[in-house]
């Protein structure tokens, strides 16, 4: 029978987890086992995605899964779109018992500390906070990753009016990081230009550097094909939104806006017996430096729900993630 021969230099990339006390011989064995397993996975990838004489280059990606202390490595073929790979991702979800939120899109690959240092913006700053006691609270938080944006970043003089734009940057970064699209996160100036093009009626709002309401926030995200549910809440009339359900089903960051205040809600903790709630709040009005310790102290916090009591009326913007993994 005829055969096709080809030669590939495979990009082996394995991660092993070891204790500092482990002997070097044990760690060597772990590396050998990991490389052997990855070569086998690459072989399966090549067989699955070879098309005629077109042979794909297998590429390893490491992913961080909830409630797992090690990384999960997946082999994808180079040059094949994430849309085409959805079947493989669904198989992984079924095998690992994961729900229908994305975990294995290329954009979600684990970022090692060395690579993290190269990124301009801080990622997932809430993870450095101690969470409420899980024995007392049922905790629901944002799924996946986002970047933290706040006023006065990128040499923008937006301290008095820029917080809603910064909230949108956080939202867009989330969709970007989950691999739903690869458009860059727009600057405040670029979002103002979007508004001016969308509707001439917004020009005065932009030129006057006014606080933008939910209607304009929706207009900006429509350009990125991001849909959302918007709610205007009156404390004395409306029932509060069930944010636990939102974070469980959608997993997206939520924007709360009440001029002159805007923030991103990243989670909620509920103690049903004591009828107590805590809300994880990311402050985009913050104007300090991008120092992680300072941001943890001043810009992100689990707040008692009383922080809403001073807002008679406020708007909620709940982005809806696309279907599929």
How would you describe what is shown here?
The protein has 325 residues and is of the alpha+beta class. Helices cover 30% and strands 19% of the residues. The mean pLDDT is 93.
List key phrases describing it.
325 residues; alpha+beta; seven-stranded antiparallel beta sheet; two-stranded antiparallel sheet; 9 strands; 30% helix
What topology emerges from the helices and strands here?
Blueprint: H1 24-49, E1 58-64, E2 71-77, H2 86-96, H3 113-116, E3 138-141, H4 163-177, H5 188-198, H6 203-207, H7 214-223, E4 227-234, H8 243-249, E5 254-258, E6 261-271, E7 276-283, H9 292-298, E8 300-304, E9 313-320
Antiparallel strand pairs: 1-2, 3-6, 4-9, 5-6, 5-9, 6-7, 7-8
Helix pairs in contact: 5-7
| Structure annotation, total helices | 9
The biggest sheet, with number of strands, parallel, antiparallel or mixed sense and barrel status, is: 7 strands, antiparallel
User: Strand tally, please?
Assistant: 9
Percent helix range: 25-40%
Q: What average pLDDT do the residues reach?
A: 93
**Which descriptor suits the 3D outline?**
globular
Instruction: Report how far apart the termini are.
Output: 40 Å
Order of helices and strands: HEEHHEHHHHEHEEEHEE
- Kindly provide the radius of gyration, computed on alpha-carbon positions and rounded to a whole number of angstroms: 23 Å
Going by helix content, strand content and strand pairing, the class is alpha+beta
Low-confidence stretches are none
The percentage of residues in β strands lies in 15-25%
């Amino acid at each position: 029978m005829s055969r096709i021969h080809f030669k590939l230099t495979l990009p082996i990339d394995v991660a092993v987890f070891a204790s500092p006390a482990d002997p070097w011989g044990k760690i060597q064995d772990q590396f050998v086992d990991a490389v052997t397993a990855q070569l086998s996975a690459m072989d399966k990838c090549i067989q699955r995605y070879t098309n005629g004489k077109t042979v794909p280059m297998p590429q390893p990606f490491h992913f961080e899964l909830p409630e797992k202390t090690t990384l999960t490595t997946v082999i994808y073929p180079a040059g094949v779109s994430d849309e085409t790979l959805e079947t493989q991702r669904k198989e992984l979800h079924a095998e690992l018992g994961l729900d229908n939120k994305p975990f294995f899109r290329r954009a979600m690959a684990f970022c090692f500390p060395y690579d993290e240092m190269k990124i301009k913006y801080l990622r997932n700053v809430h993870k450095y906070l101690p969470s409420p006691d899980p024995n007392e609270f049922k905790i629901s938080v944002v799924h996946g990753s986002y970047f933290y944006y706040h006023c006065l970043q990128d040499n923008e003089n937006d301290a008095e009016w820029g917080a809603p734009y910064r909230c949108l940057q956080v939202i867009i970064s989330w969709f970007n990081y989950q691999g739903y699209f690869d458009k860059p996160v727009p600057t405040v100036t670029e979002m103002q230009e979007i508004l001016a093009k969308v509707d001439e009626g917004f020009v005065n709002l932009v030129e006057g550097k006014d606080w933008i309401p939910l209607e304009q926030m929706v207009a900006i995200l429509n350009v990125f094909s991001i849909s959302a549910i918007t709610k205007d809440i009156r404390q004395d009339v409306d029932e509060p939104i069930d944010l636990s359900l939102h974070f469980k089903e959608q997993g997206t960051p939520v924007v709360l806006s009440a001029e002159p205040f805007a923030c991103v809600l990243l989670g909620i903790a509920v103690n049903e017996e004591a009828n107590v709630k805590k809300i994880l709040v990311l402050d985009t009005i913050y104007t300090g430096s991008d120092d992680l310790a300072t941001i943890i102290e001043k810009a992100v916090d689990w707040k008692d729900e009383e922080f809403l009591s001073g807002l008679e009326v406020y708007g909620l913007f709940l982005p809806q993630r696309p279907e599929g993994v």
